[in-house]
Amino acid sequence: MKNAPFYLYKRKESPYWFVRYTLKDGGIIAKSTRQADETAARETAVSWLVSGEYALSAKKARQTSFKNKLRTAEIDSEDLIFVLEELKRRNVISKVIIKDTPAAVNALSFARKFWNWEESPYIAEKLRQNHSIHLTHVINMSKFINRYWAPYIEHKELGEISRKDIEAFIDDLSKLQLAPHTKNQIIRSFTTALKWASNHEIIDKDVSQGIVYFSGAYKERIILTPELAHAVFLVEWKDERARLANMVAMLTGMRSGEIRGLQLKDLGRECIYVRHSWNDDEGLKCPKNGEERTVQFPFPEIIKQLKALYWKNPHAEGIEEFIFWASIPHKPIDADIFVEGLRSALVCTGLSAESAKAYTFHAWRHFFTTYMSEKVDTKLLQMQTGHKTKAMLEHYAAHKTETDFTVIREAQKKVFSALIE
Questions:
Q1: Bridge partners, 284 (sequence order)
Q2: How far is Cα 262 from Cα 320, in angstroms, rounded to an integer?
Q3: Which residues pair with 30 in a beta bridge?
Q4: Could you give the CA distance from residue 278 to residue 255 in angstroms, rounded to a whole number?
Q5: Of the given ranges (3-7, 80-84, 165-169), which has the lowest mean pLDDT?
Q6: How far apart are CA 43 and CA 182, in angstroms?
Q7: Which pLDDT value is given to residue 398?
Q8: How many CB atoms are closer than 10 A to CB 260?
Q9: Tally of CB atoms within 10 A around 276
Q10: Rounded CA gap, 363 and 165, in Å?
Q11: What is 370-405 written as a DSSP string?
């Protein structure tokens, strides 16, 4: 019968009857009933028709056919990528990592190269575009990768890193006794690499985008009172270089590296030209933020002492050696001597050694900004301290006083002259 849903037939090589069904889409499906008797075979065919089993068999047959074709087909890399992308679109798989592509590189190897000064395309890009990036920062980020991230990413490919991996890392990091700022720097040591890789289409997307960083106020540095600062410079210091370095820091708010980098040619009549900063990893480099500045310094007696200190340098030749010299030629004094000298002087004023440990050399920057912040215009003060933004200036000027001064030099004279007499 032409319109019958199925018909039975036999094959010469088999004792069993076969049934052939006509499908709704015009296709056909044939299978053995495993029955040698025609009546029994017809009953089996009818039962399959009623139960719908014949249609399941058809679907299975089509799937088998597709699988066989996929196994035997000649598929090039472009076709394969299309198949994988289609599977991702259908949410069958979440990531596509093609062998021998940039995303297939080991995640730890990528991160280590990313923070390698000589090999990193990221650093090369920064330097090419004249963006500020310092070797010390790169070294610290590299240390964070090796110390904290390595166990989490050493067995993963870059394209395999997921949001869950980032969140798991942050959860474990939260258990460590570290300052919030430090934790955030640790996180950024790898997420910066992920963002760059996404922007350069090495990976599909930045899975770290939108993560919540740690919050928490910076630990406020303890600054000396004016009375204690005065007392510090009345006692005898073991090292004249340490005494003068602390005095310059108090009077100008200059950073330790900027003071270490001072040369004779940087001393003006009533100012100091901040042209360099010394870093133990990079040597003499540009000041922080990459900008030179002129610091007002209306203290001629201190200028005279700085010049006298320079000529005590056994390696002094011309005007380009360091004022705060070291015993090693062409290098400045170790920064630790500055803070050690300060703490020793504090002990001489009557503080205990334990109490003296609370004070750092960098706290002079806070001291200067504190006692000048309400005396001069914010823009003038930024010119003096080299703070890039008002927000950062305000961070340093967290301590408040009530004295009122108008311009930098007059304010310096009025605020600090009594402290150095």
A1: 278
A2: 9
A3: 20
A4: 10
A5: 80-84
A6: 78
A7: 44
A8: 26
A9: 20
A10: 39
A11: HHHTTTS-HHHHHHHH--SSHHHHHHHT-S------
* Unique residue bearing structure tokens 């320079």: 310
CA 150 – CA 291 distance, rounded (Å): 36
Helix (H, G, I), strand (E, B) or coil at 6: strand
The residue behind tokens 């990079």 is 282
pLDDT tens digits, one per residue of 20-72: 877 766 667 778 888 999 999 999 888 888 887 766 655 555 554 555 555 66
| Contact between 114 and 196 (Cβ < 8 Å) | yes
Which string of b and e fits 121-150 if b means at least 16 CB within 10 Å? ebbeeeeeeeeeebeeebebbbebbeebbe
Q: What angle in degrees, to the nearest 10, is found between the helix axes of 180-199 and 107-114?
A: 100
Q: List residues bridging with 272 in a β-sheet.
A: 267, 295
Bridge partners (DSSP) of residue 283 are 279
CA distance readout (Å), 92 to 59, 79, 85, 169? 20, 18, 10, 26
What is the residue whose two structure tokens read 């040698």?
36
**Cβ–Cβ under 8 Å, residues 5 and 48:** no
Separation CA 376–CA 384 (nearest Å):
11
Asked if residue 13 has pLDDT above 70, the reply is yes
CATH numbers and ranges of domains, the chain: 6-73 (no CATH), 105-199 (no CATH), 226-419 (1.10.443.10)
How far, in Å, CA of 367 to CA of 209, rounded? 38
3-state SS assignment for residue 124: helix
Give the tokens for residue 238. 């073991």
Backbone angles phi, psi at 197, to 5 degrees: -65, -40
| Helix runs in 294-348, H state only | 300-310, 335-348
Residue 258: closest CA among 327, 330, 335: 335
Q: Helix 240-252 vs helix 408-416: angle between axes, to the nearest 10 degrees?
A: 130
Count each helix (H run) and each strand (E run) in the chain, helices first. Answer: 19, 7
pTM for the model stands at 0.57
Per-residue pLDDT reduced to its tens digit, 213-238: 998 655 566 889 889 999 999 999 99
Q: Strand, coil or helix: what is 104?
A: helix
Task: Determine the 3-state secondary structure of 137 from DSSP.
Answer: helix
The answer to whether 317 and 263 are in contact (CB under 8 A) is no
Q: How far apart are CA 319 and CA 111, in angstroms?
A: 43
pLDDT tens, residue by residue, 122-152? 999 998 987 778 888 999 999 999 999 999 9
Distance, first Cα to last Cα, the chain: 122
- Between CA 290 and CA 287 the distance in angstroms is 5
Count CA atoms within 13 Å of residue 189 on its CB side: 29
